[in-house]
């Protein structure tokens, strides 16, 4: 028994086109992965990683747990559409399987079941199934209504901005919005004409039958439903709805350990196609919220890469603060993609720094590297060297004179070949010194020394090292009656995951006040070296907003761990801005080298003049 | 040639027919803040590259304003991009984008520039 009607064709053809396109694309993307990454996939497929990937697909692609965490209403919208649609397909398949006694039927049969069997006589489970289908349809329709509302008024969702659509998206969006209302109408008309349905479609069917010639509308309504589905399937690979199937591929690849490289790979294709353009990354972007710079945010950047239309100026107009990375519900590695994109656009030149002398390395246990930004903050430099001397550390101030840049600013601008040249120069000196520990007072330097230099010795930010010195009692400090707030520098916090050590260190000397946006949600100071396109007035707007958040509770001092943040804030803040090393140096207890532990109270009183306040 | 014990110094006139200011104009479009430069030299005083070479952004901006790009083209890549000049600049010039833009313009115009300069 073949169940068929001509109206199923748009749906069926659309589905075949979609499945073939997706399979071809995914096959090529997985096959074209770099060799190492492909090996990870091969190794992972038969491991337990597959199961945890399936679990994540269920939680993220269907239930959208992460969006719920960011915004419950937005989460409900996505869940009702995704999970609702999934249930509609699942329950529909069960129904038709049971009804046809397990006979394998073409994929359109469950979808258009109600057309072929408006009121199946003698089907015992009809009431249960039609109730379930009506309930699920209602849930999906509520999601569509919310989607429509979001398009009209994004503020309703607590979002300041939603994404701007391009043509392909509009097409797909329109057909997606049509699908479920058309299904609702088609089922209602069928029910009005032939009976069947449950609380939703039976009642609406009776209602429509009251004033419409439902019997003659049944057939056109099913045609429209099939057309809407077919159109959506054909538009999907060209639209942002490509994220629906691609996110599943992404989750599997990510679980197997595939990651972004320094250049674009086919994994980048998977990632940019997984972007749903939900626009959650727009609101945390300080370029948008403080400086009113539009069209450069991650959602648009990924879109422009997908459309092969990247504007170099826009790609460089990003603070790389990582605030968008932090909220992306799909977990796309946005920062790495932007970095790879910048590298692709920049001219790679060799042998441009041949003028830099090789330099002499001094033998020492610890290397202190101030970095360019600390050199512009002599007070930080002084505090740091003072503390190191005080603790009696054998250290070498590597860039005291003739400082060579760490290479991170060049890296961030995409000039990687140039950066590697400077890095080789610095690395040779570090190796020659024979030191076991490398300490820097600049988070920008810290990140590159830690991640890119491939050093065999430990690399520490000065806040980590000073904490060690305080804990091992090499530095003795007095508590100060000072209210302080701590600002997480982007490169140190989100960039390197160091949140606890600076706080712990500060708690030993001052009373630390809470800040409304801290740790992963900390604001960028606006000084970022990663953005070379932003103008100074725009930077100042970002700084002013960040300062007002940080100093909302009127602290006595604003402390940070980055000389660049310090300098940026100092220009805009009425509250005094200090580096963590300066705070510590101001709270130092002058100690007797022979009696390290036995510092008497009288001696404690003979402290250095308090630098704070 | 007879040696009279003295020479004539090279003509230091700036001839805008021979030294076109196109590069500076393009630079002003790409980074308008360069127009605010007062040639104070603070950038050079902080410069990492200037510790080892004659690199001087102040000089290069001046040269481009005069339409002389040759020395700029030879040296502009020596910048380490560290950003100290930008923090120090009293006029708020976006120096890193000035350098980035000069690099871009010179790379994209290299052939025509060389022809004009007779290289």
Describe this structure in words.
The complex is a heterodimer of chains A (613) and B (119). Mean pLDDT of chain A is 90; it is low at 592-613. Chain A has a four-stranded parallel β-sheet. Chain A has 613 residues and is mostly helical. Chain A is elongated and about 95 Å long. Chain A folds into three domains: 8-14 and 45-241, no CATH class; 366-468, Rossmann fold; 475-605, 3-Layer(aba) Sandwich (Rossmann fold). Chain A is built from 29 helices and eight strands. In chain A, helix 1 packs parallel to helix 11 (214-235) and helix 15 packs across helix 18. Chain A is 55% helix and 5% strand. With 119 residues, chain B is an all-alpha fold. Chain B has one domain (22-116): Fumarate Reductase Iron-sulfur Protein, Chain B, domain 2, CATH 1.10.1060. Chain B has helices at residues 22-30, 42-46, 57-65, 70-75, 84-88, 95-108, 110-116. Chain B is globular and about 55 Å long. In chain B, 35% of the residues are buried. The A-B interface holds A 316, 347, 349, 352-353, 355-357, 372-373, 375-376, 401-405, 409-410, 413, 415, 418, 422, 527, 529, 532-537, 564, 567 and B 33, 46, 48-49, 51-53, 77-78, 80-84, 87-88, 92, 94, 96-97, 100, 103-104, 107.
- Give the number of domains of chain B: 1
Low-pLDDT residue intervals, each spanning 5 or more residues of chain B? none
Strand arrangement within the widest β-sheet of chain A reads 2-1-3-4
Largest sheet of chain A: 4 strands, parallel
Return the domain count of chain A. 3
User: First CA to last CA of chain B: what distance?
Assistant: 27 Å
| Average pLDDT reading of chain B | 88
The radius of gyration computed from the alpha-carbon positions of chain B, rounded to a whole number of angstroms, is 16 Å
Could you give the order of the helices and strands of chain B? Answer: HHHHHHH
CATH topological fold name of chain B: Fumarate Reductase Iron-sulfur Protein, Chain B, domain 2
Q: What is the helix fraction of residues of chain B, given as a range?
A: 40-55%
Number of strands of chain B: 0
**What is the annotated CATH architecture of chain B?**
Orthogonal Bundle
Indicate the CATH class of chain B. Answer: Mainly Alpha
Strand proportion of chain B, as a percent range, falls in under 5%
Strand percentage of chain A lies at under 5%
Mean pLDDT of chain A: 90
Structural class of chain A: mainly alpha
Radius of gyration of chain A: 31 Å
